[in-house]
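Reviewer 2 asked us to include a model.

Predict the structure of this chain.
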Amino acid sequence: MNGKFELIRKSIGASILIALGDYALLKLGNPIGPVIFALGLLGVCYMGQNLFTGKCGFVIQDKIKLTDLFLILTVNLATGYLVGMVFSTLDETVKASAMSKISSWTFDLPMLIKSILCGVIMYIAVFMYKKGTPLGIIFGVPLFIFCGFQHCIANVITMGVGLAFDWSLILCIVGNFFGSVAMWFITRDTNIKVLR
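Predicted model (structure tokens):
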């Protein structure tokens, strides 16, 4: 039971950190918002929290149980939406920004591809962090935001802020998972060289 409690506690923590980044993105917009958003993933990695999109590509090598990954996802989604709802009471302009963003989402192939590409970047960012550098996060997070790629946990937080729901979330979850796992599969035998 203690193991599950720890898993849930760290999943809640990750959701809060990403929510702070998402709020900054909605509040500040481009170009500052995407850069500030990176603090969320930096916090997740350095504080050892459980974020679904940061775990997907490491399911096999870190021997993460699929049931645990599903629990992380569930807690991330529920907490993210609830925190987003709290944020919706703070600033009407942020709420309006969230609603505008949600209205632009579609349940189609481009949305899935954007989610897969976000998963690829998330894997690269966390992989680089595990190798001792935050540069993958610092550059990777703004990259996926500027490119319009879709992150399922950030999106559910935005839904909470906008007090809405969009079925494109399913595509985001599937795409983030597939993109991250695919990137692991493609690069798993890569030799790591340290440049001096």
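The chain has one domain: 2-187. The chain has nine helices and no strands. We have added this to the supplementary material.
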